[in-house]
Design goal:
alpha+beta, 7-stranded antiparallel β-sheet, 34% strand, FMN binding
């Protein structure tokens, strides 16, 4: 296989696109991030990376909580707006028409129109360089019935997740390719 040698850079793509809500009341803000990941199962934790210069950075650090909201494909316009304009200059809730809904466990609101909301309490902050990594413990998850499977769990095919591509573009995910943890049962090996 012929491969190109590239300079070191962030290249783990596609990356999930999330809109994080942070702050409270009239200070509540939204920030689009493509740097978010699950990082621990017990207790459940996820991490988001935010530049210290961003308006949302001090809101997350000061409140000690945030909500990770997963958009569906129809929300790309709002997602892009929240990632393009600063909360210092715009009321992103008003500009996008998104609705702040009270969260169950944390002070920042969740986005009513987004099908998945993950409420997190800030547990760790790790300065990395250009970004700080905020690790949040998952305290509550809200999933719209329209994106839940028969088992009540999130069905990725129904969600129509949005991902960020290497060429500064948004993409939708396709359907299921196969079931995980089945390789050994189908004659696969290590």
């Amino acid at each position: 296989m012929d491969k190109l040698a590239l300079a070191p850079a962030t290249c783990l793509y596609p990356a999930p696109v999330v809109v994080v809500s942070c702050g409270v009341g009239g200070r509540a803000n939204l920030i689009t991030l493509a740097w978010a990941a699950n990082v621990c199962a017990e207790p459940p934790q996820l991490a988001i990376a935010v530049r210290p210069t961003r308006h949302s950075h001090h809101l997350i650090a000061g409140e000690g909580a945030f909500v990770v909201n997963l958009p569906a494909a129809g929300h790309v316009g709002a997602v892009d707006f929240c990632g393009t304009f600063s909360g210092r200059d715009a009321d992103k809730w008003a500009e996008t028409g998104l609705t702040p809904v009270p969260s169950a466990k944390v002070p920042p609101p969740r986005i009513g129109e987004f099908p998945v909301n993950i409420e997190c309490a800030l547990r760790h902050t790790l300065p990395l360089g250009s970004h700080d990594l905020f690790v949040g413990e998952v305290l509550a998850i809200h999933v719209a019935r329209s994106v839940a499977g028969e088992d009540g769990r999130l069905d990725p095919d129904r969600l129509a997740s949005v991902v960020y591509g290497h060429g500064r573009s948004y993409h939708g995910l396709g359907g299921t390719l196969g079931k995980a943890y089945q390789a050994r049962r189908k004659g696969g090996g290590r």
